[in-house]
Design a protein that fits this description.
Growth Hormone, Chain: A
Length: about 475
């Protein structure tokens, strides 16, 4: 194979450049929306209420994204890349309009659910197309490029959301997304092929409805438990979620229509440790990230725009880590996978120490927090492109399409689980009772401290993945 096929020039040159723009654009829409909503959510709650359901905006969005991700396999097969992307963009746009028109928190949550369906389709379709349009030597670069859209989102999302939040017009932040979504749909229709070649038709013709239901109920159980300040209800929600996940694994072993490839639930198989490492890393950052703007505004006197940008440093670190690590080959791949959870752990432990304190927001206080946020995100990015590539490499050959969608499903499940657990920790720590500065400070300490345990466990799963060939 020509040497150029392993570099950025091969991915971003010629016909591959147009394909890269189309695939990255789908993830970019989803990522920008995530940071936009994270930035304006304090303003939304102040306007229409619903502080107790703060984390549900992320939880429902990601649960719906999981459903959309699982649907993407069939949509891609039946509609082809061109029409599938247009349909996904339409669903995403419909949810965005519903959010802009929301007058109450239930209406907002309904819009977020529809948004999530479209977002899950967009992201999963992007990952699915990587293995179809690029050679395997370019997969890590393509994974890093798509992950890099989160870095673009850290600039665009907080800027759009923060400006409109400070002006008191948070609804306009959603309206600005609508023409962008329409432009992306036109781009996808113009540059993507009507049909893809080289894929067996008829693969996985039906949705794994039972598994999707069990997975959604597991996240919902933690979310429902997170609303109550009573620790007994919290623990009950976690126990029910674990039981549902066990049932999901049992159903998957005998199901004709699978949600994840064979071996995904076994730590003895090649796929199990990879998905476990992905879940632990994603839970750590995405779960804690949604409360960072609130912490910075209440505890460190940051305006909405600045708080949104600072919170986005986790995503920026993720992007920088992915870009830096994507070119690793040979033994460096294993070293980067092992290094990933260690760097995340340092970042999270630092945040648990730095964020709970109250300050006037001087740079002497904010700069160390910024470094810790970057470290936490960069740690995930260092291992991320190689973990995703490993999924495609070790998945059964007859389940490659399912493996591509599973990348998004696992990542989104980790995000939803992280958001639900974050909401639980926040309510138990006193975010709403006693609330105010004392409750927010206690929440920050407990949230970052508890979530720092995930990369500790991740050290062992990452070592297992790095050792495997």
């Amino acid at each position: 194979m020509p040497q150029i096929q392993t570099g950025w020039g091969a991915l971003l040159g010629g016909r591959n450049s147009i394909r890269s723009i189309a695939l990255a654009g789908g993830v970019g829409l989803h990522a920008i929306n995530v940071y936009l909503v994270t930035t304006i959510l304090p303003s939304v709650v102040a306007d229409i209420g619903g502080l107790d359901y703060y984390a549900w905006n992320t939880t429902l969005f990601v649960v719906a994204s999981i459903v959309g991700s699982a649907t993407s396999v069939r949509l891609l097969e039946t509609s082809g890349p061109r029409l599938a992307y247009v349909i996904a963009a339409f669903v995403f746009g419909l949810g965005t309009v519903m959010c802009a028109l929301a007058l109450t928190m239930p209406m907002m949550l309904a819009g977020r659910f529809i948004q999530g369906l479209g977002g899950g389709l967009l992201v999963a379709l992007s990952y699915s197309m990587i293995r179809l349009v690029f050679p395997e030597s370019l997969w890590p670069r393509a994974m890093a490029l798509i992950s890099g859209m989160w870095g673009v989102a850290t600039l665009v999302g907080p800027a759009v959301g923060g400006v409109f939040a400070e002006l008191g017009h948070w609804r306009a932040a959603f309206w600005t997304m609508v023409p962008v979504i329409a432009l992306f749909a036109l781009l996808a229709f113009g540059v993507l092929p009507e049909r893809h070649r080289g894929e067996a038709r008829g693969e996985h013709p039906a949705l794994p409805v039972m598994q999707l239901l069990l997975l959604s109920l597991a996240v919902a159980a933690v979310s429902v438990g997170s609303i109550a300040p009573d620790p007994l209800w919290n623990m009950l929600g976690v126990a029910v979620a674990l039981a549902l996940l066990f049932a999901l694994g049992t159903v998957e072993r005998t199901a004709k229509q699978r949600l994840l490839p064979r071996g995904s639930f076994s730590l003895k198989a090649a796929l199990g440790p990879v998905f476990l490492a992905m879940t632990l890393l994603a839970v750590t950052v995405t779960g804690s990230e949604i409360f960072v703007p609130l912490f910075l505004q209440v505890l460190h006197a940051q305006p909405p725009l600045m708080a949104g940008y600072l919170a986005a440093l986790m995503g920026a670190g993720w992007t920088m880590g992915s870009i830096w690590s994507s070119g690793a080959q040979g033994s460096r791949v294993g070293r980067n996978i092992r290094l990933s959870p260690a760097v995340v752990l340092v970042g999270m432990a630092s945040l648990a120490f730095l964020v709970p304190g109250v300050s006037m927001g001087t740079w002497q206080t904010i700069l160390p927090i910024c470094i810790a946020l970057l470290l936490a995100g960069a740690g995930v990015g260092i291992g991320w492109p190689h973990l995703l590539t490993r999924v495609l490499q070790v998945a059964p050959k007859d389940e490659q399409g399912l493996a591509s969608a599973a990348i998004t499903t696992v990542q989104l499940f980790a995000t939803a689980l992280g958001a639900a657990l974050a909401g639980m920790v926040a309510n138990m720590a006193g975010l709403t009772n006693p609330g105010g500065v004392p409750g927010t400070s206690a929440t920050a300490m407990w949230l970052f401290g508890i979530f720092a345990m995930a990369p500790v466990i991740g050290l062992f799963s990452a070592a297992r993945v790095a050792k495997a060939r």
